Amino acid sequence: MAGLESILENEEVKEYFRRALESGRISHCYIIGGEDGLGKMTLAKAAAQTLICEAPGEKPCGSCPACTRFLAGSHPDVLYPKHAKPTVFGVDDVRDGIVRDMLIKPYSSPYKIYIVDEAEKLSVQAQNALLKTIEEPPAYGILMLLATNPAAFLETIRSRSVILTMKPVSNPVLERYLKEQGIDEQKIPSLVRFSQGNIGKALKLAQSERFSEMTGRIMELLKRSDSMSFGSLLEGIGELEEYKLEIMDILSFIRMWYRDILLFKATSDPNLLIFGDEFSSIRKFSQKYSYNGIEHILKEIDVTERRLDANVNYSLSLELLWIAIREAAGVH
Ligand SMILES: [Zn+2]
Question: Distances from the Cα of 331 to the Cαs of 19, 43, 229, 327, 328, in angstroms?
Fold first, then answer.
């Protein structure tokens, strides 16, 4: 089953599908949950291809007529319903793309599979319109609802579905995967720490020159936060202005840095660090800051998030944060 095997970790989910496929007990409605980049679509496609593969032995074979059409994106019995408006999956989208369409028998496969991406955008009316299809589906009908937040579905939908959740992978697995993809080894440590086990996010960031520049600059500021003059600090913050839209990423980067310092202070264990390759700086700061000082900084990062939500000016918010960081280190 190369399809499911190609998914990293997530053993529970793979095991579920393996058993369901072996026993032929396929549910008519799946909710596949998980944030963007965790592989919801990869899982849905692997399961769909396994279901429609026509080869007698191990499935999916990757080369039978059904697999060939599927891989070309043109298998008539695997459908990807779309929504007309960008922000909502409306009742008309559901009626045309799923409910009525499912009444038409499959073309060549024993199943007709609907992979519904962004299903968290299904409106309440649209979910209600789906309900009858989920309650009394034709024997061949399978729905796979891919959603960032499965908890948001109506209970009537949830209770009739098998809910599977994609999880982030461990750092060593992600690291190995990125190496296999031929990504520049120098970039890998920061990609791994920043994407927190999210393969899709890591791959996206790996393509982005901006990202490596941005993290390089923040790292420089963090490492010199206590030693640089206030003037050059302001200049450094000014240079981050071009990453205004990524401000929440910047803040989560800063948060990870101080969490590492706190963690090292408490455990002295370098193996627990996200920033393991910056070990000597982490150790230096962990000696310099008090526990209270670090917790104060972590709280200030939350405050900064709230200020930005309340539309406080971007540069001002970062300046205030950095003042708090310097105060915590005893630099004024
Ligand atoms: Zn096949």
Answer: 60, 51, 10, 5, 7
39 has a pLDDT exceeding 60: yes
Collect residues with CB below 5 Å from ion ligand 1. Answer: 53, 55, 60-61, 64, 67
- Alpha-carbon dihedral 152, 153, 159, 164, rounded to 10 degrees: -70
Q: What is the mean pLDDT of the chain?
A: 91
Question: Any idea which residue has 């948060």 for tokens?
Answer: 255
Coil, strand or helix at 145: strand
Span from the CA of 14 to the centroid of ligand 1 (angstroms): 19
Ligand 1 center–CA 77 separation, angstroms? 14
The pLDDT score that the predictor gives to residue 331 is 64
Q: Which domain holds residue 261?
A: 208-328
Per-residue pLDDT tens over the stretch 253-292: 899 899 999 999 999 998 888 888 888 999 999 999 999 9
Collapsing DSSP to helix, strand or coil, 37 comes out as coil
Same-domain pairing of 115 and 11: yes
Closest CA to 29 of 109, 108, 102: 102
Distance 45 CA to ligand 1 centre (A): 13
Whether the predicted pLDDT of 329 surpasses 50: yes
Determine contact, residues 297/261, Cβ cutoff 8 Å: no
CATH number at residue 143: 3.40.50.300
- Give the tens place of pLDDT for each residue, 104-154: 999 999 999 999 999 999 999 999 999 999 999 999 999 999 999 999 899
Q: Please tell me the distance between residue 51's alpha carbon and the centre of ligand 1 in angstroms.
A: 9
Indicate the pTM of the whole model.
0.75
Domain tally for the chain?
2
Domain termination residue (choose one: 136, 165, 194): 165
